[in-house]
Amino acid sequence: MSAITQTSILEGRSGTFARLSDFFWRNPKILLFLMLAPPLLWLGIIYLGSLFALLLQSFFSIDEFSGLINYEFTLDTYRQLLIPSNFDIILRTVVMAALVTLASAVIAFPIAYYAARYARGKWKALFYLGVMLPLWSSYLVKVYAWKLILAKEGIFTWFLAKLHLTWLLDAWLSLPVVGGNSLSISYTGTFIVFVYVWMPFMILPIQAALERVPGNLIEASADLGGNPAQTFRHVLFPLALPGIIAGSIFTFSLTLGDYIIPQIIGSSRLFIGQAVYAQQGTAGNIPLAAAFTVVPIVIMGFYLWMAKKQGAFDAL
Amino acid sequence: MTTAVLFDKVSRHFGSVRAVDSVDLAVVEGEFFAMLGPSGSGKTTCLRLMAGFEQPTGGHIEIFGETAEGVPPYRRNVNTVFQDYALFPHLSILENVAYGLMVKGVGKEERLKAAEDALAMVKLPGYGTRRPGQLSGGQRQRVALARALVNRPRVLLLDEPLGALDLKLREQMQEELKTLQKSLGITFVFVTHDQGEALSMADRVAVFNDGRIQQLGTPEEVYKRPQTRFVADFVGSSNVLSPAFVKSLGYPARYASLRPEALSLGGGTGDVTGERKRVTGTVVATSFLGAANRVTVEAGGGTRIAAMVPASEALPEQGSGVTLSFAAHDLHLMDEAA
Description:
By secondary structure, chain A is an all-alpha fold. Chain A has helices at 16-26, 28-57, 76-81, 84-117, 122-136, 139-150, 155-162, 166-173, 187-211, 215-223, 228-257, 261-264, 272-280, 286-309; strands at residues 61-62, 69-70. At the A-B interface, α10 and α11 of A face β6 and α2 of B.
């Protein structure tokens, strides 16, 4: 008992660290500054700085003959985006990204709903494992695996044959645009793989949003006479919308920028990511590559602005 | 007298837990019916069975003579005021109140007008443009009430609606609810764990414990003539006396309840013959309750008796011997066997 002193203010511990603790306790703002400075420097200089440098490049042009960059401000490079062959690339990518986002949302919602409302204990753990597991393996391996699955001699074709549904696949592949020689070299294949690869990024935000919807709001809607469809439309969907928007930002922007999936699985027509890759690499046209890069940024900005205007974030 | 809600041997079991166990009750049209009990007694599950959020595992439910089993909540002309109000956070107050009419397909102008009227009825006119998050608990409670009543339900279910309010507001809302119920003539079924609330508001009270109804009657019956030890104890903390002790006072050997306010200090006025009964013992505790003091007396054989003594009377010392007396007819013998 002798260790207990009668003083009410304890003696400060000695040493530099103890003095430092006291100092930070008295000046919490300095601590906050010290903690935030490194990440902000990283974000400000390395990340935003390089992004800015890239954007700057898009306002330069390339000399057709020498292949050298002409450091004079011009909108010529942007004008090049509008020529049919380039504009097709943009259109193709945006339509694909929109369809992938829509399909992901439709498939992800029931999964997320189950996880948020019904899964408990080990089923919830299983859900997280199931959603996250694909993210643990290499992206390239997954894409090549899909190439095998979707190939003409692949398991998917074999499976449909066993179900006597080969005619359905053939009918689909004979369609213009979405069809092709086999799924692995068609837009349909690209679409399937995009939806597969980005699915976790859609499920998790929706699940988080649904998790925050109190169950009694759904009961209240039913109590007031809303049938399940009305409850979905007027209560569940608006409250899950911030999550759906968050998920769609991932799926939409990731599809806009990806250059590996369409290269491995799909027709040989280019997507924005591939165009950027080709322009800055083999073609050496950095300004055009930069201009292509600006397109997804502008589209995403516009998308978020529209979403905000439609009140998508009101329930946040 | 039309029966609004009828329960015929209704059970709701969750695995081995018997949340509601063979309950019979009949709520009469136009009455204020309270379901009173501690948490986990099955009262809320009964309410949810009426609303349609739960389906019975046994028995039969009728709402105004029509079978209710298998009927989803959205096809019942019954509305609920939820415990934590369950207002839609993404809708304005007016849209919240108009929700029921909207899903029923009532035109926009008409339903917004009806919602305004309902808000005026609960004394929140002009609050329509706000969001639920901007209102206080009491105001949200009124919105929840308006949102249910705007649908003109045949039965209004209230799930501990005043539980989250402070005392002053609760008393005010009790009066308002009672007035509203009388003026609208809608059947109210009210769930509460507050016996004072149930006794002051209800026309009839069903006291629940362990998934069963212990007693069903008017507040006065339940208070004055409890049928079981549980009811005597839960409704107004009556003294529950053991059969042996009751016998020693000259009654049949049965459990009995004795209200603390029926007891007074001292031998009492008047003669001893039959009129008044006496108990002697030692004071073990006293507590100040404002208008009265509660004196707990150890009366031998482990029997403790609490008496309410008006604050004007002198308080006996702790440990001193006292005599308590009560009018013989105030002791209520219970049906429950010894």
